[in-house]
Amino acid sequence: MHELAKYWWLVVLRGVLAVLFALVAFIWPAITLAILVVFLGAYLLVDGIFALIHGFTVMKTDRSWWGFVLVGLAGIAAGLIALFMPGITALFLVTLVALWSVVTGILEIVIAIRLRKEITGEWMLIVAGIFSVIFGILLFMQPIAGVVVISWWLGIYALFLGIFLISVGFRLKKVSKEFKHI
To answer: Which spans are transmembrane here (predicted)?
Structure first.
């Protein structure tokens, strides 16, 4: 747990990136599908890299490291597909985002359950995971939704995810300070 708390800033950084992505989705909802794919690919790739770094950083000291690594690998894979196969991604954008959201949400819930004895407020990561799963299910149910609606859904999802990740990150920071005093 000490290593996880030591790198609290990675969780906060993921949250900030999610909020920034949400702002882009809200400000420019009518952007073309190609631009949305690039923004999404970049976000998924960067988020995946930070989650992967976090997982490997705490590997030796935290049993939940594998969850971060899986979240990271899922994000990196989805991001690379979006960036290097934009035509295919444009056709399957809804399915790609839905699948990524459901998998990430389930893993976030598992990580939160594992952290429940270590930190208070782990429910926020559970809520973030639930939002991810619900968001993915909604996308599976509405595959022909317009780009503007997808942009807004992504924005709402990213905003709440970002807020919850930032909150969890600062709670980990508090735990990190407590470890320094021990």
So the answer is: 7-28, 34-53, 65-84, 90-111, 123-144, 150-172
| Cα(52)–Cα(87) distance, integer angstroms | 27
The number of CA neighbours under 13 Å toward the Cβ of 113 is 9
**Is residue 173 one of the residues assigned to a domain?**
no
Which residues constitute the domain of residue 119?
2-168
Phi and psi of 119, rounded to 5°?
Answer: -135, 160
Q: What's 29's DSSP letter?
A: T
pLDDT tens digits, one per residue of 29-40: 766 566 778 888
Cα 36 to Cα 5, 28, 117, 147: the distances in Å are 34, 10, 39, 8
Both tokens assigned to 149: 């609606």
DSSP for 78-144 reads HHHHHHH-HHHHHHHHHHHHHHHHHHHHHHHHHHHHHHTTT-S-THHHHHHHHHHHHHHHHHHH-TT
Instruction: Give domain status of residue 119, yes or no.
Output: yes
pLDDT tens string 101-133: 899 999 989 988 888 777 777 788 899 899 999
Looking at the structure of the chain, the number of domains it has is 1
